[in-house]
């Protein structure tokens, strides 16, 4: 009789452990930068990633790509949405805290949001990536004489 109670307790403990683990799974998926990289690679297989910065809560990941473009991954539970940010498709503002960015996507208002980073340096880095990807390419002469502009 005692063995039956012991076996039942082991099964009950295993069931409780699995339920708690499954409840925590969406949070772990949203904080996993490696999973975000794999998912972005699946969505955009021809884009090489140079650098990755995650938001403070881990729900979003910004990726600097090889050709100066920027990718954005947002976690929704166990799923990610991938965006390849095209030039002119986003407006960037500082957040009130100074450690984040407010992004307004021109074509998709549902993607707008405030992204808070762990440090202000990370927020500045991502904003520089966005500025670099949003600068129009010009075919003008880039000699020192051509770089002088009126102020």
Could you give a short description of this structure?
The chain has 151 residues and is of the alpha+beta class.
Polypeptide structure, described:
This protein has a 4-stranded antiparallel β-sheet with strand order 1-2-3-4. Helix content is 36%, strand content 27%. The N and C termini lie far apart (90 Å). The protein has a domain at 31-134: PH-domain like (Roll). By secondary structure, the protein is α+β, with helices and mostly antiparallel strands. Mean pLDDT is 77; it is low at 26-30 and 139-151.
SSE pattern, N- to C-terminal: HHEEEEEEEH
Distance between the termini: 90 Å
Helical fraction equals: 25-40%
In round numbers, the mean pLDDT is: 77
Structural class: alpha+beta
The appropriate CATH architecture of one domain is: Roll
Percentage of β-strand residues: 25-35%
How do the strands line up in the largest sheet? 1-2-3-4
The gross shape turns out to be: elongated
The counted number of beta strands is 7
Which features does this protein show?
151 residues; alpha+beta; PH-domain like; 4-stranded antiparallel β-sheet; 3-stranded antiparallel β-sheet; 3 helices; 7 strands
Topology:
Elements: H1 2-30, H2 33-43, E1 49-54, E2 60-65, E3 70-76, E4 79-85, E5 90-94, E6 100-105, E7 113-116, H3 120-134
Antiparallel strand pairs: 1-2, 2-3, 3-4, 5-6, 6-7
């Amino acid at each position: 009789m005692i063995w039956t109670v012991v076996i039942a307790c082991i099964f009950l403990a295993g069931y409780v452990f699995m339920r708690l683990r499954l409840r925590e799974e969406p949070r772990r998926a949203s904080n996993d930068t490696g999973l975000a990289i794999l998912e972005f690679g699946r969505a955009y297989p021809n884009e090489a990633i140079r650098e990755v910065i995650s938001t403070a809560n881990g729900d979003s990941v910004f990726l600097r790509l090889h050709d100066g473009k920027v990718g954005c991954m947002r976690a929704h539970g166990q799923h990610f949405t991938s965006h390849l940010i095209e030039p002119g498709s986003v407006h960037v503002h500082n957040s009130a805290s100074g450690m984040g960015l407010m992004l307004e996507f021109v074509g998709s208002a549902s993607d707008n949001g405030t992204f808070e980073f762990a440090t202000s340096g990370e927020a500045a880095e991502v904003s520089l990536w966005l500025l670099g990807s949003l600068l129009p390419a010009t075919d003008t002469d880039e000699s020192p004489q051509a770089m002088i502009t009126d102020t």
